[in-house]
Amino acid sequence: MSTSASNVSSPAPTATVVVSEQNNISTAAAAESDSENTVENELLQICKASRNSCPTKFAAFDWLVHEHACPLSSIRVAGIDRDIPIPISKEDIALLKDQAERAPFGFGPQTLMDQTVRDAWQVDGRNVWSESQPSFFQRTVQTMILTSLKEQLGLDTYSMDVHATLYKMLLYEEGGHFLPHRDTEKEPGMFGTYLLQIPVEDGHEGGQLCVRHLGQEVAIDTSTQSTSAAFQEAMFYADCEHELKEVTRGRRCVLAFNLCWRTSGQSTGEASDEMVGRKRKLSMSLIAGLPSSHVAVLPQLVERVTALVGRWTDGDDGPDWVSVPLDHKYTVENLSFDHLKGKDALMARPFMAVPFSKLAMYLVLERITFCTNFDSNKPNPRYDKKNSKEVKEGMAELVVSMVSREEKTLLTASDKWYGYGYGE
Fold it and tell me: Which residues, 6 or more positions from 94, have their beta carbon under 8 angstroms from its beta carbon?
């Protein structure tokens, strides 16, 4: 799969969280009724309360109308022997286009070129920089994104080193668009996309950016302030389907960044100094990077989990594990507790603070299939199981089992799943 493409309508499936003690598997759908105060129902209620403790989003955007909000006055592009002032003039747009190439798209393992699917120009990010603000693409962008990631997307910015890598400069002219697709993970640790729209002379019309996840849609109007000197930022998780509607007038120029993380040793299952004695504490490593509203309720959620584990251990007729669908999708490469996104991370935190001697936690993956042929005549291309091959991606579950029954739980799951442990 070429690193210059995005997956059109990638079908990476929804993940699931699972918690464990006796002999049946129950999904969230099977536990809709809260009439009985069973281990299963209480566990689902804790998961629900944790998820809803913070109004995290799967996509966020904002207009940066003040100079200090985005202090970028010019850019430099390889092949052009001078700075390009911002807003970018029509003449300089023509110079940029001379250094650009048609933007392809990905479909499963293939990289394809079809302007009915994607009509855009691109310049490799390695060929774009700023001589007037040399630190902009490192420190400045980093500062711009961290607060939004923490408070709006619910990302734990403390336990992993989040960084943004400039991937492409994209140019959409009149008629430019991109059909619904999901971004591929273009480099290790990639979990999302950050788009910085650059002011262009006379702006543009159309070009609405639609981001979709779990039946919800965030529609971002990219044109309303494009005629001014305002920048616009947008960010979303890579597993979200998104689409750029047709630009009906003018030109739209965007810097596209890959959002990536480098995790701590905690994600490998190694116990840190704060977890000695087989105990997970409500330490800085668990709460410092979380949204403030979730930090406020986390101690109460941990108390509920601890009480529930006591009932479970004392012989309450709880299930072997309870399956609760996660909001986001994951690949093998990004499968770790530090890599849980948004509400998935919020839901896992109360269980991560329970003593190791009581609970064992695992993330597991199933296999899915990708179609290897593409029909551009379809208005919204999808995958076809008849022409497919197996790849390890998507379909994750979080398995939380009682330590006394850990071996049984993992044996039950091992015929289909790939395990990833948390703890010792």
Answer: none
DSSP bridge pairs for 218: 211
CA atoms within 13 A on the CB side of 133: 16
The percent of residues above 70 in pLDDT, for the chain, comes to 62
Prediction pTM value: 0.76
- Please check whether residue 394 is in contact with residue 368, taking contact to mean a CB–CB distance below 8 angstroms: yes
Torsion sign (Cα): 263, 268, 271, 275? positive
Contact criterion met (CB below 8 Å) for 145 and 194: yes
- DSSP character for 140? I
Flag the least confident range among 118-132, 259-273, 393-407: 259-273
Sign of CA dihedral 18, 181, 58, 352: positive
Classify residue 385 by burial, with Cβ atoms within 10 Å: 0-12, 13-18, 19+. Answer: exposed
Q: Is cis: bond before 379, omega within 30 of 0?
A: no
Q: What is the pLDDT of residue 382?
A: 35
Measured CA to CA, the distance from residue 234 to residue 410 in angstroms comes to 40
Label residue 326 exposed, middle or buried (CB < 10 Å: 0-12, 13-18, 19+).
buried
Instruction: Please compute Rg for the chain using Cα positions.
Output: 23
Q: What is the DSSP letter of 265?
A: G
